[in-house]
Structure formats: structure tokens, C-alpha cells
Design a protein that fits this description.
Blueprint (H helix, E strand, L loop, with lengths): L1 H11 L18 H14 L4 H11 L7 H10 L5 H9 L3
Length: 93
């Protein structure tokens, strides 16, 4: 939960952010895509969870955002399970 809280805090911090955000972990498949998704969800706002997941997957098609990290962020962002559901729906064939 603390990592999700820190990512949301950074995304919501006042800053003059311009350019590209690079989220990187060892494999670039689970944790870093989850961090990028959390940032997108914090920036874009409530009700746009499906869009955030689609956008993430357009950049990194093999992404499988870390379930626990997304779940914690969903709770902290008060999304009522919509962020988790959007990720799960994206993983169905």
C-alpha cells in the first residue's frame, strides 16, 4: 500500500512536468506498468479507467500491471474496483 501511496503522491504533487515519464523495473512487465497506470489514473481522473489501461497497453502491449499494486491504488483513488476491473478485462482473450 505504501508504494501505491507514494506513486499517487508523486503524480498529484505540484510540478511543471513536461515530456516523457519513464517507469522502469527489472522486467518492465508488472511493477513499472502498474506505476505508470497509477500515474495515468491520478492524472486523468475518475471514470477513465478503461482509457488509462488501453493507453498503457498501446505503449507496452505485454504489460500485466501488478495486481496488488493496482488494487491498493484503486482503493486509495476511491475507484470502487473500476481500475482493477479494467485491468482484468484487458487480460481476457
Amino acid at each position: 500500500p505504501e508504494h501505491a501511496r507514494q506513486i499517487i503522491g508523486w503524480a498529484r504533487s505540484p510540478q511543471d512536468f513536461r515530456g516523457t515519464l519513464l517507469c522502469h523495473c527489472l522486467g518492465g512487465v508488472s511493477r513499472s506498468p502498474a506505476a505508470a497506470l497509477i500515474c495515468l489514473a491520478a492524472w486523468i481522473g475518475d471514470g477513465r479507467e478503461e482509457y488509462c489501461v488501453r493507453h498503457l497497453l498501446s505503449i507496452r502491449p505485454c504489460a500485466l500491471p501488478h495486481h496488488d499494486l493496482v488494487t491498493f491504488a484503486d482503493e486509495l483513488l476511491c475507484r470502487g474496483g473500476r481500475l482493477v476491473d479494467a485491468v482484468l478485462r484487458s487480460q481476457r482473450p
